[in-house]
Amino acid sequence: SLRTAYERGMWPTVVAYSQMLTDAWFARGHLSDARQGYQWAAEAAEALEDHEAYASSLIQWGQACIEQGDYDEAEKRLSSSLQFCKGTGYQTGAASAQFFLGRLAIERADYDQAQLLLEESMRARERLGDRLGTAEALYQMASIPYYRQNFERAEYLLKQAAAIQKALGDKSGHIRTLRRFADATLARG
Asked: DSSP letter string over the chain?
């Protein structure tokens, strides 16, 4: 359906389909399909001059690339999105792009760069009142001291993330954070 909508130039449908399929693509590991879908969605959003949909498509495309270990392509998509978001003043998109660029830096073991990107993303999320995004940034930031074996610092960040997630009723995020907290506590002894 998505391919047909793209081939027929049904731009609003392409954008809507790609967003509707996001959870399924990631949950089922259909990441090649996701990458193709987000490419089409980015083209459709550009044709519609829908800045938010364009930025979101690039970010999700980059996220799918990270999941498949295609870090160069992920960096290309996420950097393009960040530049676009900053140019258009789309702060939520910029915070998301920074978050995933930070996650990418962690995957590449560039922890100093990851720290800068994730802190910037977290500050933007705080300014926007996005508490769930703030918790997600804290969770991701905890990976840095965790991998550097500073387990106490990792626990500190994870406690902050867990408190926000619990208060907001984010059960899956809270469970994931508690699991990482347990790992840090066990590693610390």
From this structure: -HHHHHHTT-HHHHHHHHHHHHHHHHHHT-HHHHHHHHHHHHHHHHHHT-HHHHHHHHHHHHHHHHHTT-HHHHHHHHHHHHHHHHHHT-HHHHHHHHHHHHHHHHHTT-HHHHHHHHHHHHHHHHHHT-HHHHHHHHHHHTHHHHHTT-HHHHHHHHHHHHHHHHHHT-HHHHHHHHHHHHHHHHHH-
Phi, psi of 79 (to 5 degrees): -65, -40
Whether the model pTM is above 0.90: yes
Model confidence at 189, pLDDT cuts 50, 70, 90, reads confident
- What does the pLDDT look like over 162-180, one tens digit per residue? 999 999 999 999 999 999 9
Burial of 160 (0-12, 13-18, 19+ CB in 10 A): middle
Percent of the chain at pLDDT exceeding 90: 99
Q: CB atoms < 10 A from the CB of 3, how many?
A: 13
Q: In this structure, what token pair is assigned to residue 48?
A: 């519609």
Residues 6 or more apart in contact with residue 43 via CB below 8 angstroms: 6, 14
Tell me: the pLDDT tens digits for 129-158? 999 999 999 999 999 999 999 999 999 999
